[in-house]
Specification:
Blueprint (H helix, E strand, L loop, with lengths): L9 H10 L6 H11 L14 H13 L16 H14 L11
């Protein structure tokens, strides 16, 4: 399976390729299509298996390139350090998007 087969948009696919990813991990392959469809997902996987990408990539896909208006996505993390890591990944994957991300 490839990231393109998961239904992600071209800007996100370009960011994935730039990040050096070649194929989705099991958690990504299982979660991304369901999230793109708008379904709720609960996932669990070992550290380093791409869990952040499993929710960030389809979230960015669903948000599209719209930049005006109120916040449309909220990601909560248990620590500031983890929240900062998640923010960094959203910025990396959404680098071709006008969407903005902030850490609170």
């Amino acid at each position: 399976m490839t990231f393109k087969e998961l239904g992600l948009g071209p800007e996100i696919l370009a960011a994935i390729e730039e990040s050096g990813y070649t194929e989705p991990t099991p958690i990504q392959a299982g979660a991304i299509p369901s999230i793109i469809e708008g379904r709720d997902v609960i996932g669990s996987a070992q550290t380093g298996t791409g869990k952040t990408a499993a929710f960030a990539l389809p979230a960015l896909h669903r948000l599209g390139g719209h930049q005006k208006g109120p916040p449309r996505c909220l990601v909560l993390g248990p620590t500031r350090e983890l929240a900062a890591q998640v923010k960094g990944q959203f910025e990396k994957y959404g680098s071709a998007s006008p969407l903005k991300c902030t850490l609170v």
